[in-house]
Amino acid sequence: MTRAQRIREFLENDLAVPIPAVPVPVDQGNPVAGKVYGIEELVSGIEALLDGWWTSGKYSLQFSRQLARFVGVRHAILTNSGSSANLLALSALTSEQMGDRRLRPGDEVIVPATSFPTTVNPILQNQLVPVLVDVTLGDYNLSVNALAEAISPRTRAIMAAHTLGNPFNLDQVMTLARLHNLWVIEDACDALGAQWRGKMVGSFGDLATGSFYPAHHLTTGEGGVVYTNSPRLKTIVESFRDWGRDCWCDTGCDNTCGNRFTRHEGSLPFGYDHKYIYRHIGYNLKMTDIQAAIGVAQMARLPQFIEKRRENFRVLYSLLADLADQLLLPEHHPEADPSWFGFPITLREGRTPPRRDFIARLEEVGIRTRLLFSGNVLRQPAYRESMFRVAGTLKAADAVMHQTFWVGVYPGLGADNMHYIADTIRTILKRKVEL
């Protein structure tokens, strides 16, 4: 009997470890998201724990290769969160190793006004200027028309999310980027498995990011990834992730370059240990091998997770389709095959109770809701003194801030949950509840 088999037997028989029920019974609540896992994740994580390595190691290598194959890119660089992935991806473009295309303080990066804060924050943290553009109600992605009008001589990059797993128009965005020589970072944290013209999102831009927080398509507890097809960008991202060092040795390895003690860099002494030469102002943002081992087990479930999200979305959409005069239901481009993170709904002004009352009623009966992240990020208190450029109006972003919310379609839910959500929404609209 292998060690893994012994661990499984111990967990199943001696400890009788409980595994969360799937789907979640309606009377036990309807979360927007959550972990879906089985005994395999526990066995894999314990195996990594017993190996005694714990930092990035063999499971990290396996997990990163699986992700790269799945998304269709050459490199997947693991990190400790999706937010860190965004920071690493944007910071990589500021490296002096990028030559004339290096992002410099004062350069502009276009972002949708409804972005998650940690899509915007790396821009500010690198002394760049976020250029806020409006979104399109229904798909909640950046407006391509607003994007085209926002480009200025200082614009150097576009950083945009595939909102709630719904791909933005990659044809038009990539065409504009090539026309104006702009970098593109796809924030695909909510969109693992989404496709555009049959190709995975995350494989179009110069860089892309992913997240493995428990709410996402697969989880390692905390965790993230940066995708790229560029060997140069891979090395730079890894440098920022690994303290900013110039050395590219894997954890636990020495002298991969064969010149560990023969370099002369700047004003350092000749032969200074290459493991302690720093090229960037970096961090330690690595993923542990225990997390990666859980990710390896989750990868086996990923196709089912994605299909279950799509199935739940289809069921809920069909149940609400005749309420289009009161609810703006989600839309997607014909070339997009979303991998839904959630089901967004915009209340049509004057035809429904106010949003705060609407979602309060949903929450009272166990249907958990979320707003569309920051709404209009410009209105958030954290950014009162931040330097932005606003391109055009942010009318749709303001509508999102006041009228939009979303409910869950994650794999822990099933058809009964979707019917319960739809029935409750119908009741609220029919009674026009005053709370």
How is this structure best described in words?
The protein is an alpha/beta fold and 435 residues long. The chain folds into two domains: 43-299, Aspartate Aminotransferase, domain 2 (3-Layer(aba) Sandwich); 302-431, Aspartate Aminotransferase, domain 1, CATH 3.90.1150.10. The chain is 35% helix and 13% strand. The protein contains 13 helices and 14 strands. It has helices at residues 3-14, 39-51, 58-71, 82-92, 117-125, 144-150, 170-180, 231-241, 289-299, 302-320, 355-364, 395-403, 415-431; strands at residues 75-79, 108-112, 129-133, 155-161, 183-187, 195-196, 199-200, 207-211, 224-228, 327-328, 336-337, 342-347, 389-390, 404-408. An eight-stranded mixed β-sheet has the order 1-9-8-5-4-2-3-13, sandwiched between helices. It has a three-stranded antiparallel β-sheet with strand order 7-6-11, with no helix packed on it. Strand 4 (155-161), helix 7 (170-180) and strand 5 (183-187) form a beta-alpha-beta unit. The chain starts with a helix and ends with a helix. 48% of the residues are buried. The model has no long low-confidence stretch (mean pLDDT 95).
Percent helix among the residues?
25-40%
Number of strands: 14
The residue-averaged pLDDT reads: 95
CATH superfamily of the largest domain: Type I PLP-dependent aspartate aminotransferase-like (Major domain)
Following the backbone from N to C, one meets helices and strands in this order, namely HHHEHEHEHEHEEEEEHHHEEEHEHEH
